């Protein structure tokens, strides 16, 4: 026996879904149209197929489930619209047989084939499960997926978004789509040029700038003035005095020019005393000869040396400062340029030392170091920086294009970074899918064998089919209820026809109610036996979904009695029917069944369970309430009328707007529920049928007024707005619609119902 049914993530059963807890032998489920009764019966039909054949449950019902009270699993037989569609209008009904002594000779062969079929089916299930497990392992949430790709995907996502937040724009919260984008980028790595880290940062910088402007290129360093000074011939020239005086040869031969010059600088301090020998040998004649030795030409050379030294130092300082400024540019390799600048600075410092030595010792020749090689390196670094600047400026021109492509560029960069991790997943995925394909081939072969065996069994059972028994039993039920509109006649061993009292074939003229009746009677026979001679259908659970829609009173009473008979049979030791689940939208039908007895209820306690389906306030989701007794369904209907009465009463009082707000929130919903319960569910009347009655039977209102009322009920009844009082209907509008609502009962001949319940 089923102890509970879970309905989740299908139709109106959203969120956490609903559970029918504590199910008993007889279970009555009441719900208005649209609350999900058909969804329940459809799931039970699908689940019954799974129990019988092992077929996969429909994808709609993957989150639904059934809990059994014990280890036993009874066959589930569902009566709903699908059952009716499958069995009405056919030329034959399969024969329904009870287990008996007359089992045919091929019963044993069928039994043997069914054992083989069971083994093959189990093998097929195992193959299908293994293949499905392998395929699931490489999908989001699967083992291989988690082990390889999920970790890489998270690293890529975190690093990519930390560099550029818009990398996964609009899909940050969609975990699966993020990983799909990563896989797509991986698959295209061989066809795209991945940006370098430096280039990527540049693109990001440009994209993030509100207004990006081109920057000027750096000027190369001109040290030609320094080179010109370094190459001056003065440095290699021995600057000495004139050779015209008589001791000039002596001074020059022993290289005393610089020594003598320094001595002359002391003469103003020593007078006629020689600064070298300290004797009074310095005469005016000597001084005159020395002055003649260090003539104008000598002084000019000395001045040249001093001037060039000063100029060299000044220009060198300016050049070094300029280069140091260039080091601040983001496109320059500042460390490398700093080293080059230090080299240049040291070279200049050495040259200046040589120059100052030349000033002190003019007769000495000095060698200047050429700064051209260092300059070449510096200007090379500047040229590289300018290349980057030009590239950057070109990018600025294409900023829009760069920004548009940047998310993909960033993704490609980090996918490339973690390419090895993704590659490991891809290899594992390929291996798993190859294995799954192998299993698929084995499964296909096994399914072919299953189909062949199944066909053999079907052929054997077809040989045993006969509709005589079912025709006889259905006719007996029709006679029992004094139903004379039609009866069944055998056409041949496996066919029947539906015949009117006058002998005419009724198959083409059956009303909807008659179609329901004949298919339901056939369903009752299935609850008693099997469609195959020699086969025991085993213990059964019956699920019956609203069998009384569009029925006249005679047929409704007919079917109600038969269901009550089933209720009493449930649980009897000699009966195969072990549980009954009935779904209905009709209050009167529900009330009638609630009074029906259950076998053993006097001695074994309660044997019935009651449930009501409702739409959650403010949503379209279905909720379920388990009721203590059946009277709660009827009392709920009466309570709806009480709410309407209280609202009507407030309309005729001198209340404040604040006092009237509470009932205005719910009055439309209350009126709609009464409308659906009474007219749609109980009377079986449709909107257009009621509206047409206004045209012929109402002196106060037209059909348009009726349609406006129905539209108003539907518009404002499914949700409650708590945000704005301005949306609430006025008292005048409510009074008008209440009057039309009363007229609706009058034109349909149910004014007594209205007056009784409105007091």
Q: Going across the major beta sheet, what is the strand order?
A: 5-8-9-3-10-11
How many individual β-strands?
11
Secondary-structure-derived class:
alpha/beta
User: What is the helix content?
Assistant: 55-70%
- Count of helix runs: 27
**Rounded radius of gyration (Å):** 53 Å
CATH topology label of the largest domain: Rossmann fold
Largest sheet: 6 strands, mixed
Q: How would you concisely characterize the structure shown here?
A:
This protein has helices at residues 37-53, 81-87, 107-137, 143-163, 175-187, 197-208, 224-230, 248-253, 257-264, 267-270, 284-293, 296-326, 334-360, 372-397, 399-417, 419-462, 468-480, 512-528, 553-569, 587-594, 601-604, 631-651, 657-682, 687-697, 703-717, 731-747, 751-758, and strands at residues 2-7, 18-20, 26-31, 65-68, 75-79, 486-492, 495-500, 540-545, 577-584, 608-615, 622-627. By secondary structure, the protein is an alpha/beta fold. Helix 3 (107-137) packs antiparallel against helix 16 and helix 17 (468-480) packs across helix 18 (512-528).
Characterization of the model:
With 759 residues, the protein is α/β, with parallel strands linked by helices. It has four domains: 2-88 and 537-628, Rossmann fold; 105-187 and 420-458; 224-395, no CATH class; 632-758. Helix content is 58%, strand content 9%. The chain contains 27 helices and eleven strands. It has helices at 37-53, 81-87, 107-137, 143-163, 175-187, 197-208, 224-230, 248-253, 257-264, 267-270, 284-293, 296-326, 334-360, 372-397, 399-417, 419-462, 468-480, 512-528, 553-569, 587-594, 601-604, 631-651, 657-682, 687-697, 703-717, 731-747, 751-758, and strands spanning 2-7, 18-20, 26-31, 65-68, 75-79, 486-492, 495-500, 540-545, 577-584, 608-615, 622-627. A six-stranded mixed sheet has the order 5-8-9-3-10-11, with helices on both faces. A three-stranded antiparallel sheet has the order 2-1-4, with no helix packed on it. The two termini are 46 Å apart. Residues 90-105 and 718-725 have low confidence and may be disordered.
């Amino acid at each position: 026996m089923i102890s509970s049914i879970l309905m989740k993530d299908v139709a109106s059963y959203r969120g956490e879904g609903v559970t029918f807890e504590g199910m008993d032998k007889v279970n009555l489920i009441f719900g208005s149209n649209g609350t999900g009764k058909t969804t329940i019966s459809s799931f039970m039909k699908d689940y019954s197929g799974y129990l019988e054949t092992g077929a996969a449950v429909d994808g709609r019902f993957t989150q639904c489930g059934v809990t059994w009270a014990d280890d036993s699993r009874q066959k589930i037989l569902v009566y709903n619209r699908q059952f009716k569609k499958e069995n009405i209008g056919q030329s034959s009904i399969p024969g329904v047989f009870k287990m008996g002594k007359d089992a045919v000779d091929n019963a044993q062969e069928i039994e043997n084939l069914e054992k083989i079929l069971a083994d093959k089916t189990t093998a097929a299930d195992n193959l299908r499960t293994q293949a499905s497990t392998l395929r699931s392992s490489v999908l989001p949430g699967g083992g291989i997926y988690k082990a390889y790709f999920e970790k890489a995907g998270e690293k890529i996502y975190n690093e990519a978004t930390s560099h550029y937040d818009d990398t996964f724009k609009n899909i940050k919260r969609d975990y699966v789509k993020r990983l799909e984008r990563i896989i797509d980028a991986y698959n295209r790595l061989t066809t795209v040029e991945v940006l370098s880290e430096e280039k990527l940062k540049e693109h990001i910088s440009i994209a993030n700038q509100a207004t990006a402007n081109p920057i000027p290129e750096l000027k190369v360093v001109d040290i030609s003035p320094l080179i010109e000074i370094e190459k001056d011939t003065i440095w290699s020239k021995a600057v000495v005095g004139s050779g015209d005086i008589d001791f000039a040869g002596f001074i020059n031969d022993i290289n005393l020019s610089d020594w003598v010059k320094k001595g002359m600088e002391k003469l103003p301090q020593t007078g006629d005393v020689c600064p070298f020998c300290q004797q009074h040998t310095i005469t005016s004649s000597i001084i005159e000869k020395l002055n003649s030795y260090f003539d104008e030409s000598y002084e000019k050379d000395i001045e040249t040396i001093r001037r060039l030294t000063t100029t060299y130092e000044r220009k060198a300082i300016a050049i070094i400062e300029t280069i140091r400024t260039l080091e601040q540019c983001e496109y320059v390799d500042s460390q490398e340029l700093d080293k080059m600048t230090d080299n240049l600075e040291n070279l200049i410092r050495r040259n200046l030392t040589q120059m100052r030595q030349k000033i002190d010792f003019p007769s000495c020749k000095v060698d200047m170091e050429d700064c051209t090689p260092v300059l070449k390196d510096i200007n090379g670094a500047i040229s590289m920086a300018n290349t980057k600047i030009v590239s950057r400026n070109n990018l600025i021109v294409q900023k829009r294009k760069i920004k548009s492509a940047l998310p993909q560029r960033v993704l490609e960069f980090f996918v490339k970074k973690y390419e090895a991790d993704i590659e490991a997943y891809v290899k594992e995925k390929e291996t798993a899918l190859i294995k799954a394909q192998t299993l698929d081939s084995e499964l296909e072969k096994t399914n072919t064998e299953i189909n062949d065996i199944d066909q053999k069994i079907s052929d054997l059972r077809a040989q045993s089919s006969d509709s005589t028994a079912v025709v006889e039993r259905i006719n007996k039920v029709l006679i029992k209820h004094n139903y004379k509109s039609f009866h069944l006649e055998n056409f041949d061993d496996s066919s029947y026809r539906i015949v009117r009292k006058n002998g005419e074939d009724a198959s083409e003229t059956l009303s909807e109610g008659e179609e329901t009746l004949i298919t339901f009677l056939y369903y009752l026979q299935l609850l008693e036996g099997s469609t195959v001679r020699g086969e025991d259908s085993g213990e059964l659970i019956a699920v019956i979904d609203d069998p009384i829609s569009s029925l006249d009173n005679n047929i409704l009473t007919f079917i109600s009695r038969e269901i009550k008979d089933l209720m009493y049979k449930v649980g009897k030791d000699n009966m195969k029917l072990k549980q009954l689940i009935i779904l209905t939208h009709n209050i009167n039908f529900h009330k009638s069944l609630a009074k029906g007895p259950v076998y053993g209820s006097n001695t074994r306690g309660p044997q019935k369970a009651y449930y009501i389906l409702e739409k959650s306030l403010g949503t379209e989701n279905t909720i379920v309430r388990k009721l203590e007794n059946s009277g709660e369904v009827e009392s709920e209907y009466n309570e709806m009328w009480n709410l309407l009465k209280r609202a009507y009463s407030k309309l005729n009082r001198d209340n404040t707007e604040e006092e009237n707000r509470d009932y205005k929130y719910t009055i439309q919903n209350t009126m709609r529920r009464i409308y659906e319960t009474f007219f749609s569910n109980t009377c079986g009347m449709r909107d257009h049928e009621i509206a047409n009655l206004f045209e012929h039977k109402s002196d106060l209102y037209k059909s348009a007024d009726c349609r406006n009322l129905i539209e108003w009920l539907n518009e404002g009844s499914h949700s409650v707005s708590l945000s704005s009082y301005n949306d609430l209907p006025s008292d005048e509008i409510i009074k008008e619609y209440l009057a039309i609502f009363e007229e609706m009962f009058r034109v349909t001949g149910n004014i007594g119902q209205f007056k009784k319940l409105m007091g």
